[in-house]
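Here is one chain, start to finish.
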Amino acid sequence: MKRPSFTAAACTAAMFVVPVADSTAGPVAGTGGITLVSTFDPVEGGAMNSIGFDALSGEVFVHFNFNASIHVYASDGTFLRSIPKPFAGGNDDDMDFASVPVSVNGTTVPAGTLLIFENEPDPPRITAVDPADGTVLAEQTYDAGAIGQWTGGGYSLATDTFFGADWSRDFVQELDGDSGAILQEFPIRPPGSPAWDFFYSDLEVLDLDGNLYLVSDAQNSIRAMSNSGAWLGDFSLDPLGVSGMSGIAFDDDAGEAWISSQNGTVYRLAGFPPDGCVLAD
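Its structure:
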């Protein structure tokens, strides 16, 4: 299929709006014009290590640390169902949804397929799953000797490849879905960028601009990077009260992000792609 062209967004002066005290007054803005839309706290579990958003159904998928299942919610936080996780348990996995048909180890899976990134235990692997019932459709494995420990990953429409978040090395790997090859890797803190660290963490590719957006519970900011490893900015969420971030999933149609957290809250943010960036002092 013909794929659209993408150009990495440029960094401009950051925008910072002081949050209002009364949340009923409307959304408040963090840097880059990002706003907090809503939150919910799932009662079925506590700390979450990953999240995915199914644009076809509008459903939010979360994984609670070490849980055998993936839990599925409506956008208002109503619990809908659970499906089995291919590897039960763990706390270093991630989820994404294929926005178009995607090839995984020679098998083309349809748009709307749930994609799970995991290497707990090894080998590192991307597993394509039916989001209705957890049936495994395809799986590709990668070289465990070249990858430390993934905590996140996502599919890029711009490159028709996958990207993995290697928290133990603070690196990102670009991955071929068919051959299992690692196409490139780059550090999450390139020269000239401020300190930023993976721990409970994730990355997601925003189809609207083709850039990578990184989150981690080690800091209350979202880091933007190009798909070749250039630092594009850090967006502070301190004014929104967002903390403990462990996962990020995009609703490209709405320009929104869903954030899972280690504090048990799911955050819904608007304003993507964000404007501007926070430059190093």
